[in-house]
């Protein structure tokens, strides 16, 4: 430094406090490393802050759109729930109306049945004489028909069972067993206690019936040996005996007649004219045959077997 306080003058560079830099020196100073890169961190921070603000704005707008969409969906769901509730209420009202309309014929039939029963009870109470059984039976039959008519309006049909019909487990319910002596009535309906009811071919209530069962004494039969028809069993052995006798006669004829032909020859030798001879010929033919059959049975069977072999 100089004595008067002025900065020293650099003669080599030619710079001083009162002297401007040359254009070449300014360009050299601009090209020095480190001096031009100094403002870049501030610009990057500003750019990052700007991009973060834009991202936040986009997220905020997206969330606002989702919230609005959810609000609209909630309104639609509430509207759908209201429609479903209204339809359910209308459905229940229609069902109650249909049920009432279906029960209306039953109520009308019960009204008629009530009036008829009350009217007849008053009439019977005012009679001095006992009521006519036939008239009472007709009255009860009419009441039963009224009830069956009311059930028919609901689709329930009544079916009846006649005595003598075969027992059907799918339509009949046995309530009693009646012994019968006729085999044809075994397993049939002997009496009807109540009718049955069905709807569209499906049995809702079976008819209550009494079923016949063949008596044990009828099964054994009058002879007590299980014949069933009561005919004696001795006929069967007799028929077998007759068949055996006829079979033996056929064998004798097929044998060639050793014993059978010997009878007439013996009669001719001993004399056939007289009581004794005729008795041996006519009445004693059987006596002649049977010894011959006994004596020539083996030969006859041998001859038959031989004939069968030849054939």
UniProtKB/TrEMBL annotation:
Q: Where is the composition biased (Gly residues)?
A: 271-282
- Please give the superkingdom of this protein's source: Bacteria
Picking any one GO molecular function of the record gives: protein-folding chaperone binding
Q: Which InterPro entries match?
A: GrpE, GrpE_head
Q: What is the protein's name according to its record?
A: Molecular chaperone GrpE (Heat shock protein)
Query: Which Pfam families does this chain map to?
Result: GrpE
Q: Which residues form a coiled coil?
A: none
Specify residue ranges for compositional bias: Low complexity: 18-27
One Gene Ontology term from the biological process aspect of the record: protein folding
What are the alphabetically sorted keywords of the record?
Chaperone, Stress response
UniProt lists compositionally biased (Basic and acidic residues) regions at: 235-256
Gene3D superfamilies xref list: Head domain of nucleotide exchange factor GrpE (2.30.22.10)
Q: Does the keyword Chaperone apply?
A: yes
Q: Region (Disordered) spans which residues? A: 1-56, 210-311
Compositionally biased region (Polar residues): 296-311
Query: Does the record's keyword annotation contain Chaperone?
Result: yes
């Amino acid at each position: 430094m100089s004595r008067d306080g002025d900065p020293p003058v650099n003669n080599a560079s030619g710079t001083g406090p009162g002297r401007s830099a040359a254009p070449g020196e300014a360009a050299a100073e601009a090209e020095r490393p480190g001096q031009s890169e100094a403002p870049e961190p501030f610009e990057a921070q500003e750019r990052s802050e700007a991009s973060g603000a834009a991202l936040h704005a986009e997220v905020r707008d997206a969330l606002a759109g989702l919230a609005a969409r959810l609000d609209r969906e909630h309104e639609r769901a509430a509207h759908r729930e209201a429609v479903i509730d209204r339809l359910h209420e209308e459905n229940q009202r229609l069902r109650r109306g249909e049920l009432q309309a279906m029960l209306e014929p039953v109520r009308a039939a019960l009204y008629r049945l009530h009036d008829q029963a009350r009217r007849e009870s008053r009439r019977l109470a005012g009679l001095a004489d006992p009521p006519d059984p036939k008239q009472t039976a007709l009255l009860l039959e009419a009441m039963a028909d009224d009830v069956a008519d009311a059930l028919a309006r609901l689709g329930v049909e009544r079916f009846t069972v006649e005595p003598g019909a075969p027992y059907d487990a799918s339509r009949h319910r046995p309530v009693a067993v009646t012994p019968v002596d006729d085999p044809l009535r075994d397993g049939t309906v002997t009496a009807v206690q109540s009718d049955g009811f069905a709807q569209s071919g499906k049995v809702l209530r079976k008819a209550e019936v009494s079923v016949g069962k063949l008596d044990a004494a009828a099964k054994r039969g009058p002879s007590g040996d299980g014949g069933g028809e009561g005919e004696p069993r001795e006929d069967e052995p007799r028929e077998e005996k007759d068949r055996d006798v006829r079979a033996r006669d056929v064998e004798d004829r097929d044998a060639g007649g050793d014993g059978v032909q010997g009878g007439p020859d013996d009669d001719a030798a001993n004399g056939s004219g007289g009581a004794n001879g005729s008795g041996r010929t006519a009445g004693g033919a059987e006596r002649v045959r049977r010894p011959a059959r006994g004596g020539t049975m083996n030969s006859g069977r041998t001859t038959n077997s031989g004939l069968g072999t030849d054939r």
